[in-house]
């Protein structure tokens, strides 16, 4: 596991000194990489917030090769009390060793903020009262660990809004089945997040997504409030962290999501046959795509042994996969192309 560079450590120390004086109540976590066409929208969403409390935005540029860092510097100079940048000289995400999360955790903790908000560099907020609304709720409802809302989905290729993200289904059982929380709309308790980091140690699991396990932990030990408010815009890009044109990457992403659900079911001492069932189905799909006949037989037998299907969608999927492996790959690729468009 790589150590923090001297440059990053120095930047974190400077942020800690600044925050010791201003005592921000909220710390915004913003990770960005090669977001030159989009980062200005994100930064504008931060600086336009109208609050009766101080807040800071930790904007971590992960060694972008475009003009992202220059735009961040522009805003950091114009809004020094809000925009607190971290500039990397070496990309941390590509290391896959948890260094990016450790850096963000360390700098957010250094701010001393009570609450954390999240917004990636390609998304942005449109409600200038987002932070105030959410802080007001959490301050008056200490039995809740987190709140979230809605965001427009904007397809960058089509240059238009294509729907809404965010759902009121945010109980633990809901999130086990499907993650309906829009990350850019969240605000959560920093202390509970630290407990999550210490107890779960997500960097050791190599999960493909960093938000779903946080929401599951929050929902398991406390409560999440859904607010019927539109807080911003979720930008759909081809081949982003959760959108793929590559079929194999999509399957691996789905497998990782199911692994997270299975982990938290075990952590909570709960069980779900449907989650295990779906996991085996995607394992089978993966084996079919990679033409691994031994694993096809293995997962086919596991499914036949462990689950008794009625005429449900998983049974239909399995039959379709086994009878038409090439067509399965083709149909799923078409599905992914349409999903990324809409």
Description of the molecule:
This protein is of the alpha/beta class and 342 residues long. Helix content is 49%, strand content 17%. It is built from 13 helices and nine strands. Strand 1 (26-32), helix 2 and strand 2 form a beta-alpha-beta unit. The radius of gyration is 21 Å and the shape is globular. The mean pLDDT is 87.
CATH architecture of the largest domain: Alpha-Beta Complex
Query: Count the helices. How many?
Result: 13
Spatial extent as radius of gyration? 21 Å
Determine the CATH topology of the largest domain: Spore Coat Polysaccharide Biosynthesis Protein SpsA, Chain A
| Gross morphology | globular
Q: How many structural domains are formed by the residues?
A: 2
What is the overall pLDDT average? Answer: 87
How helical, in percent, are the residues?
40-55%
Under CATH at level 1, the class of the largest domain stands as: Alpha Beta
- Structural class, by secondary structure, is alpha/beta
Query: Could you describe the largest sheet, including whether it forms a barrel?
Result: 9 strands, mixed
The percentage of residues in β strands lies in: 15-25%
H/E order of the elements? HEHEHEHEEHEEHEHHEHHHHH
Distance between the amino and carboxyl termini: 39 Å
Report the CATH superfamily of the largest domain.
Spore Coat Polysaccharide Biosynthesis Protein SpsA, Chain A
Q: How many beta-strand elements?
A: 9
Low-confidence stretches: none
């Amino acid at each position: 596991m790589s150590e923090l560079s001297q440059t990053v450590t120095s930047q974190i120390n400077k942020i800690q000194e600044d925050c010791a004086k201003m005592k921000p109540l909220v710390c915004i976590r913003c990770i960005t990489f090669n977001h030159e066409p989009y980062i200005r929208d994100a930064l504008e969403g931060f600086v336009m917030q109208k609050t009766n409390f101080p807040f800071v935005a930790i904007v971590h540029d992960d060694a972008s090769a475009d003009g992202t860092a220059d735009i961040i510097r522009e805003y950091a100079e114009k809004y020094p009390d809000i925009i607190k940048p971290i500039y990397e000289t070496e990309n941390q995400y590509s290391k896959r060793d948890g260094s990016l999360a450790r850096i963000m955790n360390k700098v957010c903790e250094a701010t001393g903020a009570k609450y954390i908000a999240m917004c990636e560099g390609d998304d942005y907020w449109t409600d200038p009262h987002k932070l105030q609304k959410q802080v007001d709720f959490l301050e008056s409802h200490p039995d809740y660990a987190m709140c979230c809302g809605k965001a427009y989905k904007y397809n960058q290729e089509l240059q238009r809004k294509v729907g809404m993200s965010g759902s009121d289904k945010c109980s633990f059982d809901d999130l086990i089945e499907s993650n309906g929380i829009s990350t850019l709309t969240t605000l959560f308790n920093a202390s509970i997040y630290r407990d999550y980091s210490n107890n779960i140690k997500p960097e050791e699991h190599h999960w493909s997504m960093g938000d779903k396990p946080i929401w599951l932990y929050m929902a398991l030990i406390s409560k999440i409030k859904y607010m019927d408010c539109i807080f911003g815009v979720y930008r759909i890009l081809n081949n982003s962290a959760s959108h793929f044109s590559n079929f194999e990457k999509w399957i691996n992403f789905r497998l990782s999501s199911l692994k997270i659900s299975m982990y938290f079911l075990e952590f909570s001492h709960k069980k779900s046959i449907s989650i295990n069932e779906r996991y085996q189905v995607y394992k089978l799909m993966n084996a079919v795509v990679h033409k691994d006949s031994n694993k096809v037989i293995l997962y086919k037998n596991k499914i036949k042994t462990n689950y008794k299907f009625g005429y449900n969608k998983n049974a239909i999927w399995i039959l379709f996969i086994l009878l038409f492996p090439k067509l399965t790959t083709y149909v799923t690729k078409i599905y992914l192309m349409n999903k990324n468009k809409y």
